[in-house]
Amino acid sequence: MLKPRQNKVIYTFFSWYISRIIRTDFRSFEIYKSEFDPGRSILLLANHFSWWDGFLMFQLNRIYFKKKFHVMITEDNYRKVKFLKYLGSFSVLKNSRSIVESLEFAGELLNDPSNLVLIFPQGKLFSNHAQQINFEKGLMKMIHSSHKKFQYLFAATFVDYFENRKPSVYCYLQQWEGAEFTSLQLIKSNFNKHYETSRQQQAEITA
């Protein structure tokens, strides 16, 4: 696996740049907040529907959670988009031995209360109109590689234009406390409950 690298100059520049392009390309970024414990690390699970998702969650963390940001991405994207490694990205290569190393690394990151680890459980892009979020295998390996002291945050994100030229982003957050012996099915079920509630709430918004 390929790990994150540190460079304060590059990190500072791209933090500013990401904030700028979000302000430029979107009319607004609405966050429906949830309580969370700032003294514990965060496993942020989010739906994955666009090129923007990682940047939106990076911005969410910068302005709200204010943790050290980390995100699991494909090794291809890690190599292709050079600056991502300086924004907390680490790689995963599916169908390889190194996938276990990546999952264990993510679990170890969650042992540090100052960290946030973003995972897109779908594993690839799906439509923003998907009615259910599927979870790929591997998440439990990451969880079992940690001390299980972190907190779960669910993020359901949607984009709508209404009468505007630029779209607006709506991000619905929910904290969820998993039991020590939480299963993948239980996490998936609770995430999808939040996702469906958020989707219904989004459908009720009018211009």
Characterise this structure:
The protein has six helices and seven strands; from the N terminus they run H-E-E-H-E-H-E-H-E-H-E-E-H. The chain is α/β, with parallel strands linked by helices. A seven-stranded mixed sheet has the order 1-7-6-2-5-3-4, sandwiched between helices. Helix 1 packs across helix 2 (53-65). The chain is globular.
In brief:
This protein is of the alpha/beta class and 207 residues long. The protein contains 6 helices and 7 strands, in the order H-E-E-H-E-H-E-H-E-H-E-E-H.
Largest sheet: 7 strands, mixed
User: How much of the sequence is in beta strands?
Assistant: 15-25%
Q: Helical content, roughly?
A: 25-40%
State the total count of DSSP E strands: 7
What structural category arises from helix and sheet content? Answer: alpha/beta
Number of domains: 1
Count of separate DSSP helical elements: 6
